[in-house]
Design a protein that fits this description.
By secondary structure, the chain is an alpha+beta fold. Helices cover 33% and strands 31% of the residues. It folds into 2 domains: 132 residues, Gcn5-related N-acetyltransferase (GNAT) (Aminopeptidase, 3-Layer(aba) Sandwich), CATH 3.40.630.30; 159 residues, Gcn5-related N-acetyltransferase (GNAT) (Aminopeptidase).
Length: 318
C-alpha cells in the first residue's frame, strides 16, 4: 500500500456492518461502543454520518459520527468517538485521512467538526496520531472533562473515609453480587439524579437492559443488598483495558451503610483486579468548566487520579 495512493471516503451503509464491526474488533483504539449494534440502538435520536476510509481498496480507518445541521460530531450519542484505526496507521497517513475528511465535509457544506477523542487509557497501543492531525489543522480544544482512573500497577490505598465506610458495610452484613435487575437499579439511579441534580439518566431502564442483552460481556450490573433489599449498585462498561463506571446508584439507607463502598471494593479487588485501568467517569459539568468537588473527592478517595476526556472543534469555513 503506497502512502501516495488517493484515499476514498465512503458514507456508512448497513451493507458495511460486518466489515465495520470486524475492523473495530481488530483496531488499536476501538471499543464495543463503536459496534453498529451499539451506535444504532438510539438511531432515532441521531442522523448518522459515519465514514469508512479506504486506500487501495483496503479499509484503513473508521469514524462514527452524526450530523446536526451544518455540524458533524464524532459521535453525539457517545462519551467519546473519533477516528478508529489499526496498527498500520501512521502519523503521515493520519494527516492524509483528516485532510481527506476535511475536504469531503467542506464540499458537502459542513462548517464545523466536533471531535471527541478516544482517551489514551482505551488504546491497545499508542493511537494519538489524530491529536497531532487536529493540531496541524488548527483545531481548538473546545471542552475538557476530568475523569478519575486507577492504574492497576500503581494502585494507591483507600482514603480513611472510604475505609471507614467499607468497615461499616461489612459490619452490617451488606452483600454484593452481579445481577440483571436493571429496571429496579435504574429506578434508583433516576430517583437519586432527580433529587440531587434535577436531571434524568441518559439511558432509560429499557435501553440499558437492551444494550446489556446485546453486549453481555461488556455491560454488567453489580449490586449490594441487605435482607434482600437493594441498597446500591454500579453498571460497568468493560472494554479490553478499561472497566468504566457508567452508572452509580444508592438509596439513602445504602448511603448510610456504606453499601456503595462494598460494591466498589469487590469490583476493584476481585472482579476487575487484573484490568489495567478502572475508570470512575467524569466529575465535570458546564462543558468541563465546573468541577464537582464532592464527586471527584469520593472517586479520588479510592486512589483514582485524573484522566481527561477532550473535545476539539475544527472550523471548516474557508
Amino acid at each position: 500500500m503506497s502512502i501516495d495512493t488517493p484515499l476514498r471516503l465512503v458514507p456508512y451503509e448497513p451493507k458495511y456492518k460486518a466489515q465495520w464491526d470486524k475492523f473495530v474488533l481488530q483496531s488499536k483504539n476501538g471499543v464495543f461502543l463503536f459496534y453498529r449494534d451499539y451506535l444504532e440502538y438510539h438511531a432515532g435520536r441521531f442522523s448518522d454520518f459515519s465514514f469508512l476510509f479506504y486506500q487501495d481498496d483496503q479499509l484503513i480507518a473508521l469514524m462514527p459520527a452524526n450530523r446536526v445541521d451544518d455540524t458533524v460530531v464524532s459521535h453525539g450519542g457517545l462519551t467519546f468517538g473519533g477516528i478508529v484505526s489499526d496498527s498500520k496507521m501512521t502519523t503521515p497517513r493520519m494527516l492524509r485521512v483528516l485532510s481527506a475528511l476535511v475536504d469531503y465535509l467542506r464540499t458537502g457544506g459542513i462548517k464545523k467538526l466536533i471531535y471527541k477523542a478516544v482517551p489514551h487509557i482505551y488504546h491497545i497501543f499508542p493511537a494519538e496520531e489524530d491529536l497531532y492531525a487536529l493540531f496541524a489543522h488548527n483545531a481548538r480544544l473546545l471542552r475538557r472533562d476530568v475523569s478519575s482512573t486507577i492504574v492497576r500497577e500503581q494502585k494507591l490505598p483507600y482514603a480513611a473515609e472510604r475505609e471507614a465506610a467499607l468497615r461499616k458495610a461489612r459490619s452490617h452484613g451488606v452483600t454484593v453480587e452481579q445481577t440483571t435487575d436493571f429496571p429496579q437499579f435504574m429506578a434508583m439511579v433516576a430517583a437519586g439524579l432527580k433529587t440531587r441534580y434535577g436531571v434524568q439518566p441518559v439511558h432509560s431502564a429499557a435501553e440499558i437492559e437492551l444494550l446489556a442483552t446485546r453486549f453481555p460481556e461488556n455491560i454488567k450490573l453489580f449490586t449490594s443488598s441487605s435482607g434482600g433489599k437493594l441498597l446500591s449498585g454500579i453498571v460497568v462498561y468493560e472494554s479490553a483495558k478499561v472497566a468504566h463506571v457508567q452508572y452509580i446508584g444508592t438509596s439513602p439507607k445504602g448511603r448510610a451503610l456504606g453499601a456503595l463502598d462494598a460494591v466498589m471494593d469487590v469490583l476493584l479487588n476481585d472482579v476487575y483486579r487484573e484490568k489495567p485501568y478502572f475508570d470512575f467517569g467524569i466529575s465535570t459539568v458546564e462543558n468541563g468548566r465546573s468541577l464537582n468537588l464532592g464527586l471527584i473527592g469520593n472517586k479520588e478517595g479510592y486512589g483514582a487520579r485524573a484522566t481527561v476526556y477532550d473535545f476539539y472543534e475544527l472550523n471548516l469555513e474557508m
